Amino acid sequence: MANLIFVLLALTAFFVLAMSRASFRAWAIAVAIFTVSLQIGLGFPLWTFLGWLAAGLLFAASIPDVKRKYITLPAYSALKGVMPAISETEREALEAGTAGWDAELFSGTPDFAKLRCVPPITLTDEERAFLDGPTVELCKRLSDWRIRHELHDVPDDIWRFVCDHGFLGMLISKEHGGLGFSAQAQSLILGKISSKSPDGVTIVMVPNSLGPGELIEKYGTETQKAHYLPRLAHGEEIPCFALTGPFSGSDAASMRDVGVVTKGMHDGKETLGIKLTWDKRYITLAPKATLLGLAFRLFDPDNHLGKGEDVGITLALIPTDHEGVEIGRRHLPAGAAFPNGPTKGRDVFVPIDWIIGGPERSGQGWRMLMSCLAAGRSISLPATSAAAAKAMALRSTAYARIRKQFGLPIGFMEGVEEPLARLVENAYGLEAARAVTASMVSAGEKPAVISALLKYLSTERMRQSVNDALDIHGGRGICDGPSNYIQGAYQMVPVGITVEGANILTRTLIAFAQGALRSHPYLFAEIEALQDTDRDRGIETFEKTFDNHRAFLFSNATGALFHNLTFGSVASAPQNAGDTTRWWRQLSRAARSFALVADLTVVLLGGGLKVKQKITGRTADALAELYLLSTILKRYEDDGRPAGDRLIVDYCARNCLARFDTALRGVIDNFPVRWAAWLIGPLVLPFGVRRPARDKAGKDIVRLALQPGAFRDRLTREIFTSEGEEGTGLLEQTLVKVVACEEAEKKLERAIRKGEVKRFYNNDWIKEAEAKGVLSAEEARDLAELRDLVARVIAVDDFAASELAREKTTDKTASDPHQQHIAAE
Ligand SMILES: Cc1cc2nc3c(=O)[nH]c(=O)nc-3n(C[C@H](O)[C@H](O)[C@H](O)COP(=O)(O)OP(=O)(O)OC[C@H]3O[C@@H](n4cnc5c(N)ncnc54)[C@H](O)[C@@H]3O)c2cc1C
Known about the structure:
Blueprint: H1 2-19, H2 24-42, H3 46-61, H4 64-80, H5 88-96, H6 101-107, H7 112-116, H8 125-132, H9 134-141, H10 144-151, H11 156-164, H12 183-196, H13 198-205, H14 212-219, H15 222-233, E1 239-242, E2 258-266, E3 269-284, E4 291-299, E5 310-319, E6 326-327, E7 340-351, H16 365-376, H17 380-402, E8 404-405, E9 408-409, H18 414-442, H19 448-473, H20 475-478, H21 487-498, H22 503-519, H23 523-531, H24 535-565, H25 581-605, H26 613-638, H27 646-669, H28 674-684, H29 695-705, H30 710-715, H31 727-740, H32 742-754, H33 765-771, H34 777-794, H35 801-804, H36 817-824
Parallel strand pairs: 1-4, 2-4
Antiparallel strand pairs: 2-3, 3-7, 4-5, 6-7, 8-9
The structure holds flavin-adenine dinucleotide.
């Protein structure tokens, strides 16, 4: 018994020291006390000899000179060669945004109060009125089919409507003539429009995301603000922003577009300016734009600007009617119809004060772009992805309840239940992540890492939802036409995946590899110290951060083991968390494991962090699951913990944790150093990977979503549905009728199966059933109405061949990119 108490006391002391990140001296004293106790009980065998040796070494390590010589300097030399180097453009990207909840997750001990104090969805009266008024009106006017197929363009009346109502100036401040809406309001407005027309939302989204408007608002000179912002806000200028070129896609900073500071003639006067040559492609709105935002590398051989010869990446505003600007031709991105195209210019002279922010801002272009991207990437694509997920869940649950095969609604079949459960989960989760992140941005954050995580997470899940919706709709989703409500979203999927940082790159390189540098409590400072050209100062700083880092790593290893062995049952949870306390605890437990694995990943990969992308991709997945779970728990609280949502929260939480464990398992199994895998595996996953939610839980949430009611309404909030029996309104109306007629339908089906009533086209089987007393008159009337509604819901469009024939093009000027590039080379 005494021995047991002794062991328990020793373990407790070890745990407390590790968790409190104790100094070497504290450890030395603790080990000495432990060894004395051993010696009293056991005499002086090998055990106690080892104890004294450990205490002695720990004590020595606590002496500053010894620590410097035998720990700090060897670690400094070893890590200097292997830690990832940070380039100037990376540094600017890293310093551009803010670190918030991501840093809490990286810490291993997230402070839940920081997440809970993010405000719930809040709109001003004006924003709410705009969402329910002009936004709904715009949705009613948008005809997805007409835009995608008939015009292959966004029609003028839609452009006029969005310009007249200020849609293009949502992010421009009121002071400068814009609407000055919050990030949350912009996100909801964009989501609603995209649920009606993905092409339609693009013309609103681009001016309200990374582009001239935001750049001028943040960095423009007073003259630029006074001139351009009111014009942009009212749609008198249509902006586009050109960064990407044929040879600089994901690696945009390697652009070949160049400007040289020189004197030239402008408006009949000799002026200091820039001679520009550029070749850009994929530029959204370029064919319609009147104002081109352009990124290029600026050189100043005569040092007019006093910044040396290579000034750096610079941004300028160029009216598209300026002499030499080539613009107007179109690409055809995945068959979508929003304007997108290339732009070029050769030796185009522009005055120096066309630089955004004036000559003082020359060379700061990359930092300006990254700063805007950190906020913008958190809004537009998450908004449209969440809207697509919600819309696909809304339409698919209605269709699956209406469409019958083998005498059953297809939604009641287990095979269909599976994708339906994914749709419901994605709709709930993506809306949670969208809403919470938009509130963070509304509160002033510019979340650099979260925006990257959310970009790839939301667009990937959106892709899954659209594919699931198509599977569930079968031929009804495939055959295009005015009544098809999936194809518009389907065509836009690859666009969302590719823009604002293509997903493969964003997942494998940015979200974790750069995320770790941005959000880890010590890593960035350590690398800065290792790269410091002043060696003594570098070693000084390195020692401090390395000491903290070592204690941090050890406390996370201990914490992870403890919480994993105790199943997170005593992990921290916020106060008053009510029925989700257990999930908060699991989040806490998972954050410990993540912090440990993330830390070791960085240490083990070192300079290979940017190369070992299969590992960093999985680490990013793990972080994404933690973020998603955090926002799901937060959403549930923000929504007032509706009892009806408890099942979906449990379902999402289980799946997030199972995917989190699977991602960590993949990371650990592929650590390049085998001993690390053997050592860390038992700490992080002592009982293996957690199981996802059971099939029964999936059935429960799908059954809830298959009927009209509060759960379904909350799940698919702020999605546009047409009124009455038109378009998507028809689906909702038919769903209500299907549920109301369920009992009568069963009677009819039984009679048909028994052969009492014949269901063939040449027979009115409902009348026959009424005549034979199977159905009452009222039931027969309802079923007849339902039969007509269902026929319209499942109908697909067909066309005369002449209707489908597009005008044959004989345009000999259509560019052959292959030939062009040969010429350019
Ligand atoms: C419809 C549409 C609209 C657009 N609108 C605009 C706009 O308005 N303005 C603008 O400037 N640009 C715009 N773009 C460009 C967009 O930002 C780029 O397409 C994107 O950055 C990717 O560049 P890329 O297409 O050249 O692909 P590439 O850079 O050639 O990449 C190809 C693949 O390789 C992957 N990859 C590349 N490097 C790495 C790496 N280091 N690690 C791992 N994977 C990597 C990418 O993830 C991608 O999957 C638009 C593009 C499209 C398609």
